[in-house]
Specification:
114 residues, mainly beta, 2 domains, 5-stranded mixed beta barrel, 3-stranded antiparallel sheet
Amino acid sequence: MSVAAPETGLKFLQCNGCGKLYVPPKYLCTQCDQDDFSEVFSKGAGEVYSFTIIRMPFEEFAEEAPYAFGEIKVNNENLVVPGRFTNEQEKAVKIGSRVSFVKRDGCINWFQLA
């Protein structure tokens, strides 16, 4: 894992029984049935696995539309995490585009094109 500081990294949960990584929340490891996890942080670099352009969002995000939302395959982690792309990048997003983690705002992971 490409380790990052908690305040700058993409958060995962790692099972203390077998080491498997998960995107939070997770309450039981599907590999070893343990319920003991530690938070670990990755730099979050990866590539766009899938995406969509949101044109008709929920009311609270109406002023932000259109915007790109996608799934990011994180380097060396064998995980796909959801996230949004920084503003004004929705036209440039393509499957396979390299991205880097910017921040976590509430429950949203933000990425930018590399």
